[in-house]
UniProtKB/TrEMBL annotation:
Annotated organism of origin: Alteromonas australica
UniProt entry tagged with the keyword Signal: yes
InterPro entries tied to this protein: Spondin_N, Spondin_N_sf
Gene3D superfamilies: F-spondin domain
Keyword DNA damage: no
Protein name per the record: Spondin domain-containing protein
Recorded superkingdom: Bacteria
Region annotated Disordered, chain positions: 174-197
Extent of the signal sequence: 1-24
Protein keywords: Signal
Length: 238
């Protein structure tokens, strides 16, 4: 009887060991490997048409950023980057703001009546807003565009079209002189030293020109403009 009990006891131990071994193997086989989610790419094609008769638009500046950081506001002083863009058409400093999530620029100015396309991409769904900006070249410090366009509801394949108004950066007096107008009508240097005007962004009153009685002006009726000045279409590509 004792011998039988020992045999049964030994068999029980062996069976328990096999069960534990099987459990251990199952734990290893069922180990879950977590794969981090792949970033989603958001790509937008921005088409811009210059609607003016005699105002070349400087290379179009494009920026993706958060919705709560517009890059200009009426009644507020222009940033240094915006002042440089509005006076000379140079958008490098305007696009160098560290808070921007992605930037792009057209290579060349957009002549009156012409179209340009710029593509911009980002791997971050926090980019909910778009800014488009350019100088009207035959002016002192006029710029046009849209800032903080809401892209959060734009799906792949959809197009959003808007029309831009023209603003006065308020950083340079509107003398329209050859020295201060960088576009082909003036051929001047563009940016001035210091801030010579009211120093806050306003709606632009328009070009006066020589016909309007501004003796310092090199501009004519050909450079006059009315709003809107750009047609901006944004398509989400992916």
């Amino acid at each position: 009887m004792k011998r039988i009990n020992k045999t049964i006891y030994s068999a029980s131990l062996l069976s328990a060991a096999m069960v534990l071994s099987a459990c251990s193997d199952n734990d290893n086989n069922d180990e879950v490997v977590v794969t981090p989610p792949q970033p989603i790419t958001y790509t937008y094609q921005v088409d811009v048409v210059n609607l003016t008769n005699g105002q070349p638009a400087s290379p179009i500046a494009i920026a993706l950023h958060d919705l709560d950081m517009p890059m200009w506001a009426i009644g507020e002083p222009a940033t240094d980057g915006l002042a440089l863009l509005a006076e000379s058409g140079d958008n490098s400093e305007f696009l160098a703001v560290t808070e921007l999530l992605a930037t792009a620029s057209a290579d060349d100015p957009t002549p009156p009546g012409e179209r340009v396309s710029v593509t911009i991409s980002i791997n971050d769904n926090a980019a909910t807003a778009l800014t488009v900006a350019a100088m009207l070249g035959n002016t002192n410090d006029a710029f046009t565009g849209l800032t903080a366009m809401d892209l959060s509801q734009l799906n792949v394949g959809e197009v959003m079209t808007r029309f831009s108004l023209t603003y006065d950066a308020g950083t340079e007096a509107n003398t329209e002189s050859a020295m201060s107008v960088p576009g082909p009508a003036g051929g001047g240097e563009g940016p001035s030293e210091g801030r010579e005007a009211h120093d806050f962004v306003t709606m632009h009153p328009g070009v006066v020109s020589t016909e309007g009685g501004l003796s310092s002006s090199v501009l004519t009726a050909d450079q006059r403009f009315d709003n809107p000045t750009l047609r901006i279409s944004v398509m989400r590509m992916e």
